[in-house]
Amino acid sequence: MPQVVCSACEDTADERRTDHERRHHIRFHRVVARIQWGEAVVRCHDDYDADDVVVEVNFGGDMATEVVKQAAERVHQRGERESNLIRIKEVSASRGKAMRAEPISLLYEKQRVLHRRGLDQLEGEMMAFSREWDRAVDGSPNRLDAMVWGLTRLSKVITQIPIA
Hints:
This protein is of the alpha+beta class. The chain has helices spanning 34-47, 61-77, 97-109, 120-128, 135-138, 142-158, and strands spanning 3-11, 23-30, 53-56, 88-91.
């Protein structure tokens, strides 16, 4: 089952925070059908006025990109959004999950990431993940991977947070 992550939202509830202290939150959805998860991505994008949607293109990314574009068109046709256009940032994994996660772990160490309630499964994957993670035994850390892609995108594009 695909994980849908909405990660381009900034928690600005506390106006006293400086740029350096900004925190971000991630919202995960568990959905089944392509139509459902495509529209969940579009809703999440629109709810948070996201700059873009990040899609990993290594395994099935072309399909994911098309599902999101088609969902944006459907939602637009129903009159639920102004445009059928949605900006998609395609990313490709050239390094392993552990290497991609290392810079993001620094954001956690520096307390620059805040989780909202309801991310128990993500946090479980995070606590269990290590360089010794065995996909054959432990399964794929999909939530963790989506979180890493989302926070990587946020740290580079939206806030310019140095991750090293």
